[in-house]
Amino acid sequence: MLAQILAVLLIGLLAWALNKSLRAPPPMICGTPGGPPVTATRMKLRDGRHLAYQENGVPKEEAKHKIVFVHGFTSNRLDPMIVTNLSPEAVRELGVYVVTFDRPGYGESDPDPNRTPKSLALDIEELADYLGLGSKFYVVGKSMGGQVVWGCLKYIPHRLAGAALVAPVINYWWPSFPAKLANEAYKLQLPQDQWALRIAHYAPWLTYWWNTQKLFPSSAVIARRPETLSRQDLELVSRYGEGRYLKLGFFQEVATQQGAYESLHRDMKIGFGKWEFDPMAMENPLPNDEGKVHLWQGDEDKKVPVDLQRFIAKKLPWIQYHELPGAGHALHYVPGMIEGVLRALLVGEEGK
Asked: How many whole angstroms separate alpha carbon 224 and alpha carbon 209?
């Protein structure tokens, strides 16, 4: 641990010595001079920030189930995970209404330099009230969006009818993880991603520099390197053609149009920094059968080690854990997967 901290400090000194800017440029806020145009539907939050959102599925007034979907890293409100991966017949049968939104700094939502797990949960609650989703709604989070769902379970459980975490990103520094287990899982990541996370945790002030410098390899996840994909992930890319995978690049371009720092880099600083709470120390946030919490994980996910999800599931008996053999991080593209997730969450049917 000491060696890692010293190494990070040495890198910081190197950055300073090379006179590289450690401060990110100001974001190009949508709708301001020099910023991208506003094309999305947006609402104004309690602190004056704008939140961009998109409504999908059946009309709210006809919906049996109302879902707030939280996109992952490098994505945005246009993420097609739920509705476009669900047949129109299933959408109508389940009566699903889904609202997706750009997390702060992503897409067309204003940045939030004070963003925390709690502030984002409160943003979701405010969005739900603005749209009139009622006293309770569901939340579904994919990848980095799964971390946001943990925040909702902590800070607004009284508003949740249920929750699903799909391949949720973990924080290797959550206190409840045994050090040996977390360290072994951490070392499964590519060396350059180990360093990217190490910087985000121990020296967050270096996050922008590290991910823009050219001296060392930076995040392979941001670069969408194929080494971060599992065997099944690669098969899905091949099966659906390059178009779907390339579309992820389009999502990333839209996601970061206001600047990578307030979207990707702040995600890294918050997601792998010191949290306000430990998810594994939580009591059941939806007691008395008020709702269920599901966690879906592929056992060959190269971005999120399955051993840590298994530990979480054992630590929290109120989690309904679903592990998919052979699946990777893109398990939501597996045919029938999303329908299985929603049927388990909404009507209690066993997911695929």
From this structure: 19
